[in-house]
Amino acid sequence: xxxxxxxxxxxxxxxxxxxxxEFLVNGYLDxxxxxxxxxxxxxxxxxxxxxxxxxxxxxxxMLGSGDKISFDFNVVDKHSTGGVGDKTTLVLIPLVASLGTxxxxxxxxxxxxxxxxxxxxxxIPGFKTEMTVDELKQEVLEIGAAIAGQTGNLCPADKKxxxxxxxxxxxxxxxxxxxxxxxxxxxxxxxxxxxxxxxGEGALMTNIEDARALANLMIKIGKAFGKKVITVxxxxxxxxxxxxxxxxxxxxxxxxxNGQGPKDLEELVINLAALMIxxxxxxxxxxxxxxxxxxxxxxxALEKFKEIVNYQGGNIDNIVTAQNIIPVxxxxxxxxxxxxxxxxxxxxxxxGAGRLAKGDEIxxxxxxxxxxxxxxEVTEGEVIAKIYSNKTLIPEKDVSECFEITDLKVNKxxxxxxxxx
Length: 421
Ligand code: URA
Hints:
The chain is of the alpha/beta class. Helices cover about 45% and strands about 15% of the residues.
């Protein structure tokens, strides 16, 4: 077997065999296949796609490249394909756990203009996100939930291939994304998986057709491995909630756990929580909505969040946000038609909330807090956002240009497009 023949097959759109995919992935992992040949193959995949059979085989090989976690009890997992202002995990995990469903959540750091849960959690002083697999299991067993960074040596093949895709323009391939996400989800041992698939300008999937194709592919991969996968297609054209930036998002998550969150974030966590619990406890989702809403209002979910934070060494009383707060004013009166999630994410990153280069230190205290959302009425000169900054400043105009304001009344954006099972 040789790599040039495999590249040639992919160029000619001939299906690769399981053995060829194994040869390829293992060869890349052990260094016998160099970056330039792997890049060439990835580009051929991006352009010519992969069959379902090839995608399942790729998932299986990447899954087999490292450790697999298993639990002695049922756990549910949730994954987001990434967005701006996406603090869903911080609210959802304690909410679900407060209603008796166990969750072991492994999260990542920010990527590009999108934020990452681990960076957000590290804005809580003392919060420990690195733990061993045994520590993770123990926490889930004792308090019903844990949120950690990547634990153990899960899917090293995906890690190496993903890093190459990131710098060779080959991220945006549906089979490559599906196998990358699913190999990690399968390795982390959950029985049931709910995927929040973001769609829109600020997301990996920019249109609904591609999002549906990705959703269906992940469901099929799950089925091939005996796991139930449900995908929820959600809007990522405007940021989720108001806050964008690590500590600012943690504060917003705590407010949401206190029953005072933004409407869109609340709607999302309530639906995702009901889905996760329904999968775990085999109860129709509709029946669970009321219980979930109650747990968010009566303080139970907030108590569970505090329990997780305390268990992992953090203290929510000491969260710090930047003191330099610059208001951004509406350039004209009208209605907010759109708020570019992509641009707001990029501006927050420039302020220091995200990394511009691998390994950059981030500033947990900075970010942007919107005070208006799509559909809101504004008057000229009214504050539409606030910039929280430290060392790096950005012009207010850059933020106000993320808002499109029109004369005509605008409806609120639809948040949940569809659920695909
Ligand atoms: N997230 C992943 O884990 N992998 C991808 O390929 C894209 C997003």
